[in-house]
Amino acid sequence: MGKDPGFPEKFISGLITLIKMNPMSGIEILPFKPAHQAEAKNLILAGLEEHWGYLDPSKNADLDDIISSYGGGLFLVALQDEQVVGTGAILPRNNNTAEILRMSVANRMRRKGIGRMILDHLCDYARSIGCRQVILETTETWQEVITFYERYGFRVSHHLDGDVYFKLVL
C-alpha cells in the first residue's frame, strides 16, 4: 500500500485547522516558518543556558538554519501574541521510528500545557507517516523534563554517557 505523496502536507494543513480551534487561550501551534528563526533559536538556547548555566558555542549548529536542519520532518512553534513561546521537532529515523527533538517552552510559560500540546501534535504526525514508535533523549540531570516525558507515557529504554533515552509505542 503506497503512501499519498501529499499526505504529510495535507496532514499539516489539517493540523493547522485543528490547532486554531484549540480553546487554550491565546496559544497557536503552527509549523515553523523562516520568520520564526531568530525567536525559536533564542528560546531553545535560553532553555539550555538556564539548565546548564552556560552555552557551548560548538554545539547547536542545527539551530542556525532550522528549515534545512529539520526539513525532512516537522518543526512546530507555539505562538502567543505572535511570539514564539515553545518549540518541538520530529524527524523520521526509519520506516517505524521518528525522533522528537528541540522541545522547549519559555520559562514563564511552563506548566500551562504548551509542551503537551506540541508533543501531542508531533506524535500525531509520527502516526500519520506510519511510525510505530517515537524516541527521544535528554540529560539524566534534567529531572523536570524526565518526569514530563514519563507522565506522557514515554518509557526509559537505556542510559548512556549521562543521557537518558526514551521510547513511546504509538
Structure, described:
The structure is a single chain. This protein is α+β, with helices and mostly antiparallel strands and 170 residues long. The chain has one domain (7-134): Aminopeptidase (3-Layer(aba) Sandwich). It is built from 5 helices and 7 strands. The chain has a 7-stranded mixed beta sheet with strand order 1-2-3-4-5-7-6. The radius of gyration is 16 Å and the shape is globular. The two termini are 20 Å apart.
Strand numbers in spatial order across the main sheet: 1-2-3-4-5-7-6
First-to-last CA distance: 20 Å
CATH architecture: 3-Layer(aba) Sandwich
Helix content: 25-40%
Characterize the largest beta sheet: strand count, sense, and whether it forms a barrel.
7 strands, mixed
Order of helices and strands: HEHHEEEHEHEE
Unreliable runs: 1-7
- How much of the polypeptide forms β-strand, as a percent range? 25-35%
For the record, the CATH class is: Alpha Beta
Integer count of domains: 1
Structural Rg:
16 Å
Shape: globular
Structural class category: alpha+beta
Count the DSSP helices. 5
Name given to the CATH homologous superfamily: Gcn5-related N-acetyltransferase (GNAT)
Name the average pLDDT. Answer: 88
Instruction: Enter the CATH topology name.
Output: Aminopeptidase
Map the helices and strands.
Elements (H helix, E strand, L loop, with lengths): L6 H14 L6 E5 L5 H16 L13 H5 L3 E7 L2 E10 L4 E9 L8 H15 L4 E7 L3 H10 L2 E6 L2 E7 L1
Parallel strand pairs: 4-5
Antiparallel strand pairs: 1-2, 2-3, 3-4, 5-7, 6-7
